[in-house]
Amino acid sequence: MLKLSWAVCLGALSLLPSVVYAAGCAGLSGSASGNDPFWMNNSGLTSLSKSVYKSGYKVFRNVKTDYGAVGNGVAGMYDTAAINRAISDGGRCGQGCVSSTITPAIIFFPPGKYRVTAPIIPFYYTTLVGDYNNKPMLVADANFNGIAVIDADPYIPGQVNPDGSGVNWWTNQNNFFRSIRNFVIDVTAMPPDAYGTGIHWQVGQATSLNNIDFKMSSASGTRHQGIFMENGSGGFMSDLTFNGGAFGMWLSNQQFTIRNVKITNAVSAIYQLWNWGFTWQNIQISNCQVGFDLSTGGLTLATQSAGGVLIIDSKISSTGIGIRMTSSQPKTLGGSIVLDNVAFSNIKTANIQDASGTSHCRAPGFSGSGGGDDGVACYPGAPPSPPHDATGEP
Ligand SMILES: *[C@@H]1O[C@H](CO)[C@@H](O)[C@H](O)[C@H]1NC(C)=O
Ligand SMILES: *[C@@H]1O[C@H](CO)[C@@H](O)[C@H](O)[C@H]1NC(C)=O
Q1: Which part of the chain is CATH 2.160.20.10?
Q2: 166-170 mean pLDDT
């Protein structure tokens, strides 16, 4: 049995700048084996986590033992308030604060079912961590009211910029130092025609989402979505699953690297209104109407808004259209999509379809009938042999 020493604890917490985080895990000793509780489920961490900038400031906060969240699936308003208190406690960087690196917080969620009635708002420099061994569930109440179960950049109601756009708590490209890991987020109790959304993730760099399962309605006409991200300058995501919804991931941002994602039963698995450059690896899409939905903007280089997409070691299966795009621009990389080791199987209409309805990328086994296949083969020569598996290994 693998034994990990508490040095792991020191190592992980030292992700925070050492000048801010002065305690380490000095009071803990011992080792853990595979069946032991997740190491963060230890209320002793709270008293150990101190800031050298603010006396009494706690970096580590346990939503149950420190703030009284119940996590029994029913205490909705109470749990929402307790979680938001765990986040905001100690004079942190919330609305009106441009940015701060001296008030970080790790908010730990022990296992449980936390019913949420209004958005959980992670302040600047917040990490939300669930118990890795038994992921806590954040369950949107049927009457949930707000943009998303977790809202990383709230809009200020009633305020607009001169150009008519919304005003956020933080500037989207400057919304740094955030992560969320080890959760199940379930919006299926909300009516399918409500915009039930898991995470509003309008963030900049040093941000990540890891190991999160999103559950949405797959009723016809569903408006649910896993992640909604309209702009920003990210970022990294990995090990995410999405089931149901109008959109698994609705992602517009300058750039992101995203790997190990499984999306099933969504209308559009991935939708992009705009981007500069996205890298995707090991994306598994099945039983959706559209896989990558990049069909946005105009048809000229100047007006086309989504493009610059690299997809590696991925598979799209049992789906209507694999990739829907605007058009590639002659002689530029505008609107370019690079596919490296991407398998299409049981695609109904087109592996890749452009705005004119023409389908491209006639892969071996393509049996689509839509849109006048232009005969461009995905594999100009023989298909790679042996093909890589989903992890990229031959
Ligand atoms: C987490 O810690 C609490 C005490 O703080 C304990 O009651 C609970 O059983 C622990 N749960 C797990 C899953 O380790
Ligand atoms: C980000 O997108 C939202 C929604 O489209 C918009 O209101 C806001 O103005 C955008 N922000 C910037 C800086 O472009």
Answers
A1: 45-266
A2: 96
